[in-house]
Amino acid sequence: MSSSCLVEKIGYHLRLSEPDKALLARLEEAEEPVSAGAQVREAGSTVEHMYVVRAGWFYDHVLLPDGRRQVLHLHYPGDIVGLPEIPFARTGAALTSATGGVLCPFPKQALDQVFERAPRLAALLFSIGMVEHAVLADRIRVIGRMGARERVAHFLLEVVSRLRVTRRDLGARFELPLTQAVIGDAVGLSNVYVSRALSQLEASGAIRRRGRNIELLDEPGMKREVDFEDRHFRIDTSWFPAS
Q1: Would the pTM of this model clear 0.85, i.e. be above it?
Q2: Alpha-carbon distance 189 to 183, whole Å?
Q3: Chain-centre distance for alpha carbon 152
Q4: Which of 56, 148, 186, 216 fits as disulfide partner to 172, beta carbons 3.0 to 4.6 Å?
Q5: What's the rounded Cα separation, in Å, for the pair 13 and 78?
Q6: What is the mean pLDDT of residues 109-133?
Q7: Distance (Å, rounded) from C-alpha 196 to C-alpha 152?
Q8: Helices and strands of the chain, counted as H and E runs
Q9: Domains in the chain and their CATH numbers?
């Protein structure tokens, strides 16, 4: 179970018992390799299965009537894909792989054991779903009120804060295996404006780029500039039911 990305992520927020780890491990029993750029499911698909991301990066997106794409959520190793869609019979967004990866599909019904046997774990899964909504709300605020440079800076901070949940030794340098098109569709910018914003951040000394690697040279300054709040750093568990 030490190789479980899901256990690693959940364990960041909550001390897990061995029965808790066993429940989570069952969600990762099946594995499906996914190639880069593959669409895993379409919008409007029946919500029968959910996924644990074991490896790779994925994203949810919707297509607007004029064909433009809006990227909603990014998914990293350790994420459960579909938590906000649990109440619905059909998905509201398509799921696509940004990189090659591995998904572990499991039936939505399998969550019943978590809710019946591990109420603290169920409370945490509920909270993580709410964190996803908070992250999306933050991005809506940024898109509606900030310029290109600030949008891209906020996006980079959002990515690194989530990566640190399962990579606790991660410093200021990380790999960003996303195209400028995907970044642009997440923050409402064209490729040209994403490229320009990254160049501006680099020229100002805020970041350094080496291929797909990004290094945040002035993370505190970037956070002040965009009023960034790390939604992933700590979840309030004080209200969780007793173990």
Answers
A1: yes
A2: 8
A3: 16
A4: 216
A5: 13
A6: 93
A7: 10
A8: 8, 11
A9: 5-118 (2.60.120.10), 135-226 (1.10.10.10)
- Residue at token pair 């696509």: 96
Is residue 231 within 8 A of residue 164, CB to CB? The reply is: no
Q: Is 242 helix (H, G, I), strand (E, B) or coil?
A: coil
Distance, CA of 214 to CA of 58 (rounded, Å): 19
Q: For residue 78, give every residue at least 6 positions away whose Cβ sits within 8 Å of its Cβ, in sequence order, or none.
A: 5, 6, 8, 9, 10, 52, 53, 165, 166
Start-end of H helices in the chain: 5-13, 18-26, 111-117, 119-145, 148-166, 180-187, 191-203, 219-226
Phi, psi dihedral angles at 207 (to 5 degrees): -140, 165
Q: Which tokens in the block code for residue 178? A: 């996303």
State pLDDT tens for residues 27-68. 999 999 999 999 999 999 999 999 999 999 999 999 999 999
**What is the Cα 181 distance to its own chain's centre?**
17
Which candidate, 183, 176, 173, 185, places its Cα nearest to that of 152?
183
Q: How far apart are CA 85 and CA 132, in angstroms?
A: 11
| 3-class secondary structure, 201 | helix
Q: Which of 132, 90, 86 is nearest to 108 (CA)?
A: 86
- At residue 238 the predicted structure's pLDDT band, cuts being 50, 70 and 90, is very high
Q: Tell me how far apart the alpha carbons of residues 161 and 238 are, in angstroms, rounded to a whole number.
A: 22
d(CA 30, CA 28): 6
